[in-house]
# Entry
Amino acid sequence: MTTLRATTPERGSPRTAPKIRLREIDLNITNRCNLECIYCSFSSTPDRREPEVPAAEVHRLLDTAAAMGNKVIHFSGGEPIIRPDMPEFIAHAAALGFRMRMHSNGALFTEARLQRVWDAGLRQVLISLDGFDANHDFHRASPGLYDRTLQGIRNAVAMGFAVRVNSVASTLNVAEIPRLLPMLAEMGVTTFTVFYLIAVGRGRQQQALMVPPERWRQFIGEMRRMAATHRPDTMEVTVEKVFLWEDEWDQHLHSTGRGGTCLGFLEACDYVNVLADGRVYPCVCLIDEAPPLGNIYERPLRELLDDPAGWRFYYELAGRFSPSCGGCELLDACRGGCKAFSKAASNDWFTLDPRCAGAPRAQGFMPVCFMLRENVDSGTRSGFQERV
# Structure
């Protein structure tokens, strides 16, 4: 078996920053939400005191991002459609030529609300669905939500939106998620993506619900078989890879930018997450305890991304490994796994990624970046879902 290798970018000094090649920005327009999902990465709540990005800052960020050559804006939250000024932001982003998507739980997708964002220029929405009725309502901590979510999907499809459905898989719903695919295909959904539950935000308290490695591989196989028989040509189906198995180690591994582990964004920063309080991070997995790159309320995005001081912690983080990693033949590919997951599991950035026992060949797999996604039809992998 060929040993999998990947080029490791040069370690930075306190005077360096990565190449900034922004492709996509996740803008958490508000941290207020109508739900309190049990694994929410941003710990969103319905509390009106939750932070949200002031309108002037939103417009300023959009102008800055356009000048930097960014291609895609994801309006996220919280629940972004609760903001009455969302159509203004969408219209501004459309005028700048951005491709736009709006993340939502879909429960508030009335025809009137959807019409307002459609008229402003939005054409794609991302709606969360975590299984059938009981599982969806449990994961979203909202009895009766399932029917409202399905109605939101129907309303969006009927209006002409390209609809992507996102599911977060756990040990509780992993068996039924593949069975959602025929229903979603019949409803006219264009993209179905399944995420692995990550230990971020309230997800830190749900680590017992993370799907075990062998079950995750079985699940991907189930998704592949279901897509082969129930997926129309117009529908794309992807899953987060999470693990790379020994019989896949001779394949190309994505290693640059989003999806290329904690070293990937130091090779090229192609994505950032802007939180509702203005903090900026290169990966959502890091928002709990890592220092931000900066804050857009204090400095323009371009300026803070170019500042080596903001990146110093991340170069130090990516440049140190657990002693158990030192002699591993797969270190250049694995790159020490997800440092944020190590911190969440053991309160130490530099312990082994909990997905690895220190001997990947013996266990038969290695951990890969949580942000790496795989198309179940073509097998292609990327840190991004849709093509620009």
Observations:
- The first strand starts at residue 20 and ends at 28.
- Residues 213-230 form the longest helix (18 residues).
